[in-house]
C-alpha cells in the first residue's frame, strides 16, 4: 500500500521539526508514500520505535483550486471529533510553516485495519458483509448527529445554503479546470459537456432538497473507511479535505453511489461501478453472489432511522443527480492536475 516516495520531501528538516514538536514520534524515520488518493500527497512514517504514523500535505506548486487540498481543515475536524463517538485517528501536530517540507502538513496515527476498495465486500462472510455496510451507514449517521458548536466547529462552515454554494464552487472549478493546459502538448482540458445547462438546472431552488446543515465529510465512501482487522466495524474515517458544514444528503449520496453509478452510467466499465449493485431484475446483476449485501433502499432506511429524519424519494433523486455532476467536476480536476503534473496518485492518468 505504501511504497517508493514519488514526491520527495526534506526528511532532515521534517525530523528536526518532529524532534522539537512531537514527542510521541522518535526519529530517525523511514518514509514511504501511499499510492492511493488523487489529491494530497500522503506518507507513511515509521520511527525508531517501529511505530507508524501518517503525514498528509498539500501538493507542491501553484494550486488550481483554493477550496481543495485543505489539509488544515482535515486536521481541525479530525482533532475536534476525537472527543465524540465518530471513529477518527488521533492527530499529533499541525504545521502551517511551508519552509519545513515545502507545504503545510499534519501528522496523525496510522490506523491498523482493513481498507476495502470494493463496496461489495468480496471475501467476507454473509453476516460480515451485511454488518460492514450497516456500520458504514451508522458511522455516517453518527457524524451527522454531532452538533458542530459542541466540538468547537461552529465556525467550520455555514449552516444553510450548502447546495447553492456547491453549485457556485463547482461551477467556478469547472471553468478553471477546463482552462488548464497540458504541460507538454499545451492542449486545454476543456469544458464539460452541457456544463451551462446543468448548472442552470441545479440552481433552481424549487427543485432542491430541504435545506439542512450538519458536519459534512465531503467524500464519505467505503474506501475512505478503515475497518477493524477482524471485526465488521469501522475504526476510522479518512480523507477529510472537503469537510465543512453541509447537507447530509450529499454525504449519503456519496456512500450509496455504487448503486447510483452502476444503474445510471451508460458506459462500462467505470471505476466503482459493479454488477453487484445493478438492480436485481437486471440480467447482468451479480447481487446473488454477495449474500448480505443490502439494497440501496435498506441502506437509506437505516440511515434515516439512525440519524433521526426522513429522506424523501424526490429529494434523494435530486441529490443523486447532483452527486453525478459533482463527480464529473472531480474527474475533470484529476485531469487538470495530471495536465499540470500535480496529480498525487499514480493512477491519475488512467
TrEMBL record:
UniProt lineage: Eukaryota, Fungi, Dikarya, Ascomycota, Pezizomycotina
Matches recorded under Pfam families: APH (PF01636)
SUPFAM superfamilies named in the record: Protein kinase-like (PK-like)
Record-annotated membrane-spanning stretches: none
Protein name: Kinase-like domain-containing protein
GO molecular function: kinase activity
Annotated ranges, domain Aminoglycoside phosphotransferase: 31-260
InterPro entries: ACAD10-like (IPR052898), ACAD10_11_N (IPR041726), Aminoglycoside_PTrfase (IPR002575), Kinase-like_dom_sf (IPR011009)
Key word Kinase present: yes
Keywords: Kinase, Transferase
Amino acid at each position: 500500500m505504501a511504497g517508493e516516495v514519488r514526491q520527495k520531501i526534506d526528511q532532515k528538516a521534517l525530523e528536526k521539526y518532529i524532534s522539537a514538536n512531537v514527542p510521541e514520534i522518535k526519529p530517525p524515520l523511514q518514509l514511504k508514500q501511499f499510492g492511493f488518493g488523487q489529491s494530497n500527497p500522503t506518507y507513511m512514517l515509521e520511527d525508531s520505535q517501529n511505530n507508524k504514523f501518517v503525514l498528509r500535505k498539500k501538493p507542491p506548486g501553484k494550486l488550481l483550486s483554493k477550496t481543495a487540498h485543505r489539509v488544515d481543515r482535515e486536521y481541525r475536524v479530525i482533532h475536534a471529533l476525537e472527543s465524540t463517538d465518530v471513529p477518527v485517528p488521533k492527530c499529533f501536530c499541525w504545521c502551517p510553516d511551508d519552509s519545513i517540507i515545502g507545504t503545510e502538513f499534519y501528522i496523525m496515527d496510522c490506523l491498523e485495519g482493513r481498507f476495502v476498495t470494493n463496496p461489495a465486500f468480496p471475501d467476507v462472510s454473509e453476516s460480515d458483509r451485511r454488518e460492514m455496510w450497516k456500520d458504514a451507514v451508522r458511522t455516517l449517521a453518527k457524524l451527522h448527529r454531532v452538533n458542530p458548536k459542541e466540538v468547537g466547529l461552529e465556525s467550520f462552515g455555514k449552516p444553510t445554503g450548502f447546495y447553492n454554494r456547491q453549485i457556485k464552487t463547482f461551477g467556478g472549478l469547472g471553468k478553471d479546470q477546463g482552462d488548464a493546459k497540458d504541460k507538454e502538448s499545451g492542449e486545454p482540458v476543456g469544458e464539460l459537456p452541457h456544463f451551462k445547462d446543468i448548472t442552470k438546472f441545479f440552481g433552481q431552488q424549487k427543485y432542491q432538497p430541504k435545506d439542512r446543515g450538519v458536519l459534512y465529510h465531503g467524500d464519505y465512501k467505503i474506501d475512505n473507511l478503515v475497518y477493524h482487522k477482524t471485526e465488521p466495524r469501522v475504526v476510522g474515517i479518512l480523507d477529510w479535505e472537503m469537510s465543512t458544514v453541509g447537507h447530509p444528503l450529499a454525504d449519503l449520496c456519496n456512500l450509496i453511489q455504487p448503486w447510483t453509478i452502476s444503474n445510471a452510467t451508460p458506459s462500462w466499465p467505470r471505476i466503482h461501478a459493479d454488477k453487484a449493485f445493478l438492480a436485481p431484475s437486471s440480467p447482468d446483476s451479480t447481487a446473488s453472489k454477495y449474500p448480505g449485501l443490502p439494497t440501496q433502499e435498506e441502506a437509506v432506511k437505516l440511515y434515516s432511522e439512525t440519524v433521526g429524519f426522513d429522506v424523501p424519494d424526490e429529494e434523494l433523486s435530486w441529490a443523486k443527480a447532483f452527486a453525478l455532476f459533482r463527480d464529473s467536476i472531480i474527474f475533470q480536476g484529476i485531469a487538470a492536475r495530471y495536465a499540470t503534473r500535480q496529480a498525487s496518485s499514480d493512477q491519475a492518468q488512467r
